[in-house]
Design goal:
The complex is a heterodimer of chains A (111) and B (900).
Chain A: H1 11-22, E1 25-26, H2 27-38, H3 46-59, E2 62-68, E3 74-80, H4 82-110
Antiparallel strand pairs in A: 1-3, 2-3
Helix pairs in contact in A: 1-4
Chain B: H1 3-18, H2 20-44, H3 49-60, H4 63-72, H5 77-95, H6 97-126, E1 137-144, E2 149-150, H7 155-164, E3 169-185, E4 188-197, H8 201-205, E5 211-212, E6 228-231, H9 233-240, E7 250-253, E8 256-263, E9 279-282, E10 306-311, H10 317-334, E11 341-348, H11 364-396, H12 398-406, H13 411-445, H14 463-490, H15 493-499, H16 506-541, E12 552-557, H17 566-581, E13 586-592, E14 602-607, E15 621-627, H18 631-635, E16 639-642, E17 656-660, H19 661-667, E18 677-680, E19 688-694, E20 709-713, E21 723-729, H20 733-747, E22 753-757, H21 758-761, H22 769-803, H23 805-813, H24 818-852, H25 863-889, H26 893-898
Parallel strand pairs in B: 4-9, 6-8, 15-20, 17-19
Antiparallel strand pairs in B: 1-2, 1-10, 1-11, 3-4, 3-7, 3-10, 5-8, 6-9, 7-8, 12-21, 12-22, 13-21, 14-15, 14-18, 16-19, 17-20, 18-19
The chains are: A alpha+beta (111), B alpha+beta (900).
Chain lengths: 111, 900
């Protein structure tokens, strides 16, 4: 089983859900978008991307369908389900609480 | 997981499972697409095509690896593995048809025996009577002044209890059970096993008619009123062939006109576990029965009714008991009687209804536990056998296992696969076992019980039996699979690979030897139990009965079923006796109310002038039989003093009796009882003079001996309507049966007759039946166990011998004598037998305590049973090892050495 060791556990799910909330994308496009939005700070290897997508699909948070891609070939496009949108809200909320708390702690140290 | 999530996830799971190829194909396509796009990206950055593709693949970590990681996310991997194991297991089983056939057959026998026996236990103990909420039903019982319990009440008792216990019981009904009537429709008269019920009975049971109507709450309150009859479903089916027009038809019950108004629902056979009630009539109709006085619905003297109550919702058995204790105390205070009941008791009817006399402890749970234990032992023997075969196969498959382990399968995974295979085997065994079990339970249901009463012995399979079979199969799978699985889990991969699968480890031999020793032990335990039961049956069959059953034939008839009055019946009896005695070949003919070992048993409390029962002791009581003059001659019961009955002992003369020796010695302080009088407390003003003393005999049932017993002249004491004509003749049974039945039917063509030889009657329920049944059942299980042990011993010894062919070849080549080889192989069997026999004797001694209460005249530690069983088993085990030993003896050294 693959683990995104370089990411906080569970954040990859959040990132993927957020990216797919903006627009349906295929796997390759998702990897490019990840790199693009986070610069080189968040390194997600292609090897961990696909199992993660698979897992989100199994959870029922995203849905895949085959559509023609830009190069006019069949590609698998992922989009968010209703359940996935709820999950995104939940995880985003969790993340905000967590990061706020950590920021507090860090500030405390500086003072 | 909330259901709305299933809406999203279930299709995924199902797709992963059943469209696996397609899903995998799509995954492949997706990943290849990704690699291509990534390659294109690197190409655009100026890499060479090879380097670009290589980089793209490295990023992904390899297509196959990525796929595997994705598949792991599917959550159905365990299920896929399981299905794969099943497929693989099925293939392995198909590849070894001999092993598979033997294993499945063995398991089928084990599971089948258990299922069949469980179907019997299910019927007797678990399957509920077909009424609404049977768990709420209770039977009312009473404590009697002279000790003992009873469950018969008077009609006024019924009305009073019903009124006073309103908050405790939602309903109380009164039943007159155990009544054989004659139902005559269109001139054709046949027996009808009937129950007379108070009008609320069917609504209390929550039943709806299959046809017409049931008995109404308003019916049954007035003696002789409401002449209606409700038939049971089965009786309607068998006698009236589902004729729907039967409703509204006129018929005669015991000569009284009734109207058939309906048919009870399918599956309802009354409240008795084993009896098959055929018809229901309102209680008031019992007025026509000869043994009830006309005022039976108003007098407290006639205590002949069974009371069944339904607990109010939320009332416990204990709560009902405390309420009834108060009610009972009040009632017995208000209606004091010389020998009435003094306290009321509640008795849960139990899921399967009434079984035999509820006043006695029910032997069924213990008997069922015992028999299930024995059957379970057979199943364990079967499992040991298959486990042994499996171990042999595991030896053969060691290389395969080692190979798979070397390729990365974990031990747990291999063990799981072996368990799955044994599960597949058990599943087949279970299916075949159910078929065997169905056959077995059919045999069990068809065992004849010699009785004129219609019995319900339907050991059909319901969900409980199937669940039991399934449970047995799972147990089997674990028992069979666990040993090889553990061995694989523990085994050292290196050792196995180095050994090259050529010879198996000595540890394997030891384990197999231990399994076979356990088999021998289990089989010996079964044999000992069988021997004990057979010895017990022998003892019972050689009991001194005190009468001679051979050449006596019984013709049971009931003139009241044909509508005879009391006077007509007595006249009919006299004519029948005279005409029977005149038949050629008839030595003597008598009549009796009750036949020894039969269903009818009557008795009463005694009042004997000059005899005081010890203070606190119960009043003396006795069983009795009403007979005619030649009874003693026919049954060959010798009189030790006085005389038998004469024709002059009639209704109008002095009441007389013949008593047995026990009674003669007990009550008259050593003086001669002849000429003395006694009376029954039910009829104290009627002194009965003792005119003779008969030798003791087993007059009522096989269990009772040396109890008081009284014989009364039938013509002075005709209350119970049914009698049995007993004929002693040298004629063979079929001839005598034809002659006498013919005679009865020339006297009255409509008279129902039940014919049976006295020797057959001895096998009745109160006679040898249970002993024969127990011995037969234990015998079948013992035989099965022995068979399994033989197969086990033979299998292991011959396998071990075949594994040692090489060694034997060397020994022979080095000059060993064939006899020494034989001794070596036989020795192995002998060791197994010795260990098994010792363990088996200990196991048998353990279980014998449980068996003890079912044995007559034989101790559970009976040395003969143990010795005979051990000897038989040892002989059989030696014989089973002798065959492989002989084969080993004939090994050709050249062949054996080349074999390597």
């Amino acid at each position: 089983m693959s683990k995104p060791s370089d990411l906080v556990q569970g954040t990859l799910d959040l990132l993927l859900l957020k990216i797919l909330a903006l627009e349906p994308l295929n796997g390759f496009a998702i990897s490019q978008r990840l790199k693009q939005v986070s610069g080189d700070v968040l390194q997600v290897s292609d090897g961990s991307l696909y199992p993660a997508l698979h897992k989100l699909e199994q959870e029922g948070w995203i849905r895949a369908e085959w559509r023609p891609s830009e190069n006019n070939r069949r590609a698998k496009f992922y989009s968010l389900t209703r359940l996935g949108r709820k999950q995104l809200e939940k995880e985003a909320g969790n993340w905000q609480r967590l990061s706020a708390a950590i920021t507090q702690v860090v500030k405390l140290k500086e003072a | 997981m909330q259901p709305q999530r299933w809406f999203y996830t279930m299709p995924m799971r199902l797709r992963s499972l059943f469209r696996r190829k397609r899903v995998d194909g799509e995954l492949d396509e997706e990943l290849r697409d990704h690699v291509e796009q990534k390659t294109a990206l690197y190409l655009a950055k100026g890499m060479t095509p090879e380097a670009a593709r290589r980089k793209a693949l490295i990023d992904l970590g390899g297509i196959e690896q990525a796929k595997e990681n994705c598949r792991d996310q599917r959550r159905v991997a365990w299920l896929q593995d399981f299905l794969g194991d099943i497929r693989y297991g099925a293939r392995m089983l198909r590849k070894a048809p001999g092993f598979t056939a033997v294993a499945i057959l063995t398991l089928a026998l084990g599971i089948g025996a258990n299922t069949a026996i469980f179907s019997l236990v299910d019927f007797l103990l678990l399957r509920p009577v077909a009424v609404k909420n049977p768990g709420q039903l209770i039977l009312l019982m009473s404590d009697w002044k002279n000790g003992g319990m009873d469950w018969a009440f008077s009609y006024p008792d019924f009305q009073e209890i019903r009124k006073q216990a309103e908050g405790v019981f939602s309903s109380v009904s009164a039943l007159r059970m155990y009544q054989m009537d004659g139902l005559s429709v269109g001139g054709n008269s046949q027996p009808l096993w009937a129950v007379y019920v108070s009008g609320n009975f069917f609504s209390q049971m929550g039943l709806q008619p299959a046809l017409g109507r049931l008995i109404l709450p308003s019916e049954g309150r007035i003696a002789g009123a409401d002449p209606v009859l409700v038939l049971s479903y089965d009786y309607w089916k068998s006698r009236f062939n589902d004729d729907r027009k039967v409703v509204g038809k006129s018929a005669l019950v015991n000569g009284q006109p009734v109207t058939i108004v309906g048919v009870a629902p399918w599956g309802f056979h009354g409240l008795d576990t084993m009896e098959d009630v055929q018809g229901y009539m309102p209680l008031g109709m019992a007025a026509a029965l000869k043994d009830l006085p006309p005022d039976f619905l108003t007098t407290r003297k006639t205590e002949r009714f069974t009371l069944v109550a339904r607990l109010c919702h939320g009332v416990s058995l204990g709560g009902a008991q405390s309420a009834l204790s108060v009610i009972g105390a009040r009632m017995s205070r208000e209606h004091p009687k010389s020998d009435g009941w003094t306290a009321l008791r509640v008795h849960a009817l139990g899921p399967t209804g009434l079984f035999m006399n509820p006043a006695h402890p029910n032997p069924l749970p213990l008997a069922s536990a015992l028999i299930l234990l024995l059957a379970g032992a057979v199943l364990v023997l079967a499992c040991l056998n298959v486990a042994n075969l499996y171990l042999v196969r595991a030896g053969i498959r060691q290389r395969e296992m080692a190979m798979r382990a070397a390729l990365g399968a974990t031990r747990g995974r291999l063990a799981r696969q072996l368990l799955t295979e044994s599960l597949a085997l058990a599943a087949f065994g279970c299916a075949a076992g159910i078929v065997v079990g169905l056959g077995g339970s059919r045999i069990l249901s068809s065992i004849p019980i010699h009785t004129p009463i219609p019995l319900l012995l339907d050991f059909g399979f319901d969900w409980r039996v199937f669940a039991y079979a399934l449970g047995a199969a799972v147990l089997t799978a674990v028992l069979v699979g666990i040993v090889p699985a553990l061995r694989v889990a523990r085994g050292d991969l290196n050792d196995i690979l180095h050994e090259g699968g050529r010879t198996s480890t000595p540890g394997g031999h030891r384990l197999r030897g231990a399994l076979v020793a356990a088999q021998v032990a289990g089989s010996l335990m079964l044999l000992v139990v069988t021997a004990l039961f057979v010895r017990s049956l022998e003892n019972v069959q050689h009991t001194k009965l005190g009468f001679d059953p051979s050449h006596v034939y019984n013709f049971s008839l009931d003139p009241h079923e044909a509508g005879y009055s009391r006077a007509q019946s007595l006249e009919f009896f006299q004519t029948l006796l005279d005409r029977t005695r005149a038949l050629p070949g008839v030595e003597s003919a008598g009549m009796a109310l009750a036949v020894p070992m039969g269903y009818i048993g009557v008795g009463g409390s005694l009042q004997i002038p000059g005899y005081q029962s010890p203070p606190g002791g119960r009043a003396p009581s006795t069983g009795y039989n009403a007979i005619t003059s030649q009874y003693f001659k026919t049954m060959r019961i010798p009189l030790v003093a006085g005389r038998a009955f004469l024709r002059s002992d009639s209704q109008n003369s002095q009441r007389v009796a013949v008593i047995n020796q026990t009674m003669a010695n007990r009550f008259w302080h050593g003086r001669d009882p002849i000429g003395k009088t006694f009376s029954f407390s039910g009829d104290p003003k009627q002194p009965i003079e003792v005119v003779g003393i008969a030798k003791n005999s087993r007059d009522s049932d096989i269990f009772t001996q040396n109890d008081n017993f009284v014989y009364l002249p039938l013509f002075q004491h005709y209350h119970e309507p049914a009698v049995t004509l007993q004929v002693r003749t040298a004629l063979p049974f079929p001839v005598a049966a034809r002659e006498v039945s013919g005679l009865i039917h020339t006297l009255d063509p409509a008279m129902p007759v039940f014919v049976q030889s006295m020797t057959a009657a001895l096998n009745g329920f109160n006679g040898f039946f249970l002993f024969r049944f127990a011995a037969g059942l234990a015998g079948a299980l013992g035989l099965l166990g022995l068979l399994l042990a033989v197969v086990g011993v033979y299998g292991v010894v011959s396998y071990a011998a075949s594994q040692r062919t090489h060694e034997i070849g060397i020994r022979l080549a080095l000059g060993a004598q064939p006899r020494q080889v034989r001794k070596m192989i036989l020795g192995q069997g002998l060791v197994i037998a010795a260990i098994g026999v010792v363990a088996g004797i200990l196991a048998a001694a353990g279980i014998a305590g449980l068996v003890g209460s079912f044995l007559v005249g034989v101790s559970p530690a009976d040395p003969f049973s143990y010795a005979a069983s051990a000897f038989l088993l040892a002989a059989v085990v030696l014989a089973a090892s002798y065959i492989p030993a002989r084969r080993a003896m004939r090994v050709d050294p050249v062949e054996a050495l080349r074999h390597e």
